[in-house]
Amino acid sequence: MGILETISKVNITENSWNEAVGEHSVISDQFDGITFYRVLKKVGQLNKGTVVTDSEVIFDFPRIARILQLENGIKLTFTNPFYVEEKVDGYNVRIARVQGRVFAFTRGSYVCPFSTDRLIDFFNIDKFFDENPDLIICGEIAGPENPYNTETPPYVTEDVRFFAFDIRTKGTDRQIPIEKRYRLFEEYDIPTVTRFGKYTASDIKKLKQHIQDLNEKGCEGLVFKPINPSERMVKYVTASSCLKDMKATSPVMIETQAEFFTHRMLRAVFYLLEHNMPLDKTFLREAGESLLKSLYESVKKASDGEMITERVNVRFNKKQNIKKLFEHFHKCKVDANLVSQKRVGQYWHVEFVRRCFPSYEVIRKHWSGHSHFD
Ligand code: ATP
User: What is the pTM of this model?
Assistant: First the structure.
């Protein structure tokens, strides 16, 4: 099949495709000799994040609406039963077989060399894709040794793990029904997010208990998934995850949109009020530390002329994929330098440093006395 035949199946004409390519709404990319297109701006029904190859379309992973008030949000969203899953704090991948090879695509539609290298550790990808070549497994990769996030679920204390939560079919933007999905995860022994089971809006007491347990453990939250496709999926997060997010982003606050912090403060305050938790000294201290401590350290470093950096460790199966991760960083304009790579047992242990140059530069400018309007 050629690209024109592939896009015609999702109702895109040759003209509109060529126009999109001309305007850079769609760009061509390559990984390991395989060419594919990345959708950067909506084209027809294809949203940002979609991957198009010569023979298939891998739709984007859709955004999930958020509720801030659990009880009212659930009552307003669901009249039918729904499933409840843990929301795992990591990064999203879509795993699919393309031209005989299995790749992990990021939300931004890149092939992630690190995640792709590690797929064989997560489940039997050959068996799954031999028997289901048209399916896409979606899930979260989480753990302290990942190239992207500094946050990790409390129960992943080293390396990374994979947690599946969705299965989609190539060429459509629909998920396969949740109960069938769960059966496939079991049949192929695919690790999943914690599944709390089936509930209705009248089970709010039990749902509050789950979220409170997750909050105490330092987990991110819950995702509520309808059985009836006319209802929507929603997410709800814990107060502790809001503080964790702020703490992780505080070192680069200067290059982060203010909404990142205001949204999390709002979510945390809603959480405290709904779950009858006091805005006590401990919470206020933790919130203050999350917001200010790392920012203070960043400003101190940069004002002393020292670069703001993050040290990251990751493990690889194959040495040649380490180089590919740095090529990927280069493509995504991530400023990262390799510190060391050594074989320890089964894996290549890699350490690199990410430089936060934009934050450094702005702080240096302010510190050296430049005036500005704000
Ligand atoms: P959005 O995806 O809505 O734009 P975002 O990128 O800020 O928001 P989050 O607020 O973290 O992401 O929530 C959505 C993400 O949650 C999904 O992209 C998915 O990777 C992740 N996730 C973790 N656990 C689950 C789960 N059980 N079901 C669905 N998504 C989950």
Answer: 0.96
